[in-house]
Write a structure and sequence with these properties.
The chain is mostly helical. Helices cover 72% and strands 5% of the residues. A hairpin with a 2-residue loop joins β2 and β3. The two termini are 31 Å apart.
């Protein structure tokens, strides 16, 4: 069993539940601020009671100040997650993130994005969860709280742990530690990440050292989520190095805390590790009870990785108890789940790489636009200098007026040139990637929340092969022709841009998923029917389109990510088709 799969639940949630403390004035007893401070502490220990208190505050939201509303939504989301109510947690965390962004509270925004990622992970939307973590990373420059920054960096370290890249994980963990030190919760968090990295690397001496450090920094915290997670992580490390009795002691302690606090987070990892240690100790009947309780509680909701782990354990128990046919059946199920888990893990890795690449491209395009702007300003300065010189030597007012008119014309051409370079793709005339993202984000932000919105991503099939067969000038001509057809067919409100070498994107405000899918099919059919002789082609061209749309407006990044996921599935299916993202 790959360690990163079973530890994914633990390590991601461990870091995301570290609540950053901020120094604030002591609130007056009985005030709303005092209630929120009390609620924050309660959410770590008694999620059921905390949720009730949060709901009471939210019932009178009209009396809450905006910052109080944001914080109460956040703590309600945290309490929902602690109780395993993931849909409600996701809903509240998203509203809290919107609230924080509206107020420019970027420290709170990144934490709320992380809470959304927790909920998404529990709902088996791992790619979306990683996208949220890396989206939070983009806001770090705007966060003035070092603990928040370090917490995000540590979360990214966990992303790399989950995909089996300990070197990158350690790099981000060290960056996090350099950013912020001295808080007990964060010290525990860093220790757990380092312990997990050493487990992946199989370094027994370092595992023992980190295990001992975890005793010192983690097990006396007042955050019950982190204590339970630390106990499970330590027990998992003990299992790796053969300290089975100590592992069972730690897991029993975590089990008691979970029952006492009615905590659902990390419960799957707790079940698995307890069943595993019981099997290792040959206490098969007890292990059977734990496995049956797991399947009874998580039936139909477990991830492929967790299903693989439990099916394998069940097969071991069956073998030990002489139930050979049942063991074979469970091994078959484990193998099938393993294949699904491997595919999902590969998708996650690709998604992380894709998000990172998009981020790098976006940064490069912003820098390019800034450089063009500076060149534009320098050109304007030269034009003004020439204008002053010309006027100074002019012998007549008329000549001066003519000179100014000429300068203004040249300045106008200069402004247009650099604007076009920054805003438009030179080959197709569509918006550049940078300007499309800017324009689409502004348009999404201006929409009423109840307004539908959709994104279509289009790629021409086998364009590289076409370039090799006919030459790049022909391939460029195909891109230009397709772009021209899209300009003609798109709705007036659509925003159209070239977002990659072979990728074109359309934002469709006011268009729901079915309408966007119908438009995408119309585009696909149109491209398929384009006459080849007009483009010097020996064969026809086709395109694959990915569509994501919602009846209520969503975040642009979410629409693009899911449309891209649909596009990839369409291309894997052979191309020349429209594939619609059907998830929520």
């Amino acid at each position: 069993m790959p360690l990163q799969l079973i530890s994914l639940l633990l390590t991601l949630l461990l870091s995301t539940l570290a609540i950053a403390e901020e120094t604030v004035a002591t609130p007056a007893p009985g005030s709303t601020e005092a209630k929120i401070v009390e609620l924050e502490q309660m959410s770590r220990q008694q999620p059921t009671l905390a949720l009730k208190q949060a709901e009471k505050l939210l019932e009178r939201f009209n009396y809450l100040k905006p910052q109080q509303l944001c914080k109460t939504l956040q703590l309600a989301a945290l309490s929902h997650l602690g109780l395993g109510e993931n849909h409600n947690g996701l809903r509240r965390a998203k509203r809290a993130a919107e609230c924080a962004e509206e107020l420019g509270l970027y420290g709170e925004l990144v934490y709320n994005l992380k809470l959304q990622a927790i909920a998404s992970h529990h709902l088996m939307e791992e790619v979306e969860a990683f996208g949220l973590y890396l989206k939070a990373l983009k806001y770090l420059d705007k966060v003035d709280n070092d603990q928040r920054k370090a917490d995000i960096l540590m979360s990214v370290a966990n992303v790399y742990i989950s995909i089996g890249d300990p070197e990158q994980a350690l790099f981000y963990a060290e960056r996090a530690k350099a950013t912020y030190q001295g808080d007990p919760s964060f010290d525990c968090l860093n220790t757990m990440v380092v312990l997990n990295i050493h487990q992946i690397q199989g370094n027994r001496e370092e595992i023992e050292r980190a295990h001992g450090l975890a005793d010192e920094v983690c097990l006396n915290l007042d955050n019950i989520y982190m204590v339970i997670a630390a106990l499970i992580q330590q027990a998992q490390a003990d299992l790796e190095i053969g300290n089975n009795e100590r592992a069972l002691t730690l897991l029993n302690r975590a089990w008691e805390m979970q029952l006492k606090g009615n905590i659902e987070l990390n419960l799957g990892a707790l079940f698995y590790n307890k069943a595993k240690v019981l099997v290792t100790l040959e206490r098969y009947q007890e292990a059977q009870q734990v496995i049956e309780e797991f399947f009874g509680r998580f039936s139909g909701t477990q991830t492929p990785a967790m299903e693989e782990n439990f099916e394998s354990l069940q097969a071991e128990v069956d073998l030990a108890l002489g139930r050979y046919e049942q063991a074979a059946k469970h091994y078959r199920k484990a193998l099938k789940a393993q294949q699904e888990a491997a595919e999902k893990n590969n998708n996650i890795t690709l998604a992380v790489q894709k998000i990172q690449m998009d981020s790098l491209q976006h940064q490069a395009q912003v820098k390019e636009a800034q450089a063009l702007q500076k060149a534009h300003e320098a050109e304007l300065a030269k034009e003004k200098a020439r204008s002053k010189s010309y006027i100074a030597v002019s012998a007549a007012v008329a000549f001066g007026i003519v000179g100014m008119a000429l300068v203004n014309r040249r300045m106008g051409r200069s402004r247009k040139l650099y604007k076009d370079l920054a805003h438009f793709d030179g080959l197709t005339g569509l918006f550049s990637r940078w300007f499309w993202l800017q324009s689409a984000e502004r348009r999404c932000a201006s929409l009423d929340p109840a307004t539908p919105a959709s994104v279509i991503l289009l790629r021409i099939d086998e364009l590289r092969a076409l370039n090799l067969e006919h030459g790049y000038s022909v391939g460029d001509g195909v891109l230009q022709r397709v772009s021209a057809e899209l300009k003609a067919i798109k709705p007036e409100s659509a925003i159209l841009g070239r977002t990659g070498g072979n990728q074109i994107a359309l934002l469709l405000p006011d268009l729901s998923r079915p309408a966007a899918a119908a438009l995408a099919e119309q585009i696909r059919s149109l491209i398929e029917s384009l006459p080849t002789d007009e483009m010097d082609l020996k064969r026809g061209i086709t395109a694959t389109l990915g569509v994501c749309g919602y009846s209520r407006q969503r975040d642009l990044n979410e629409l693009v990510l899911k449309a891209d996921k649909a596009l990839d599935e369409g291309r894997q299916g052979g191309g020349n088709q429209v594939f619609v993202f059907e998830g929520s």
